[in-house]
Design a protein that fits this description.
212 residues, alpha/beta, Rossmann fold, 5-stranded parallel β-sheet, globular
Length: 212
Amino acid sequence: MQQKKPIVIGVTGGSASGKTSVSRAIFDHFSGHSLLLLAQDAYYKKSDMPFSERKKINYDHPLAFDTPLLKDHLNRLIHRQAVDQPVYDYTIHNRSDRTVHLAPKDVIILEGILILDDAELRDMMDIKVFVDTDDDIRVIRRIKRDMVSRGRSLDSIINQYLKTVKPMYHQFVEPSKRYADLIVPEGGQNQVAIDLLVTKIKAILAERGLQE
């Protein structure tokens, strides 16, 4: 008997746009279902450079990610095969030695800043979502997040934002908005958009015989 294809939902947007909030809202709604969250951030490339050099890497450029590995893992999950997802450690700016075993699920939420930049990744998605949030709001959220959870100084956060985060957003992330099926202003606060997504996901689940 042929296995039923999982639903793949891509959620993208700029750094601190609310991608995770949208992904979590979907995840929580389908908490009783077969579902997993796949984060592009886990697929930053492993580097052998010293720490002082790793800090200088442009982590907002497409080349910072091991996209072939991400595509391979997503393809395996779509074909109902388990994968060992890498774990990225922000404190050392490098991939750790640990992995997380992910079993295939009926609903896969792929979240990351550059997931719509790659045509092959886009082709694997059933629903493509772009979370559209003002630059000022995003930089304030990023400062709060990085100082609290990643132990970074205010100066380093601002310098990185001005040098790479903002220009890469306008060069790569924002242009990918044209590939989105749904644009969600203000992220997880937009309950109407969340409800629309949930309704669409339920319809595809029913269509593929993957009902809750």
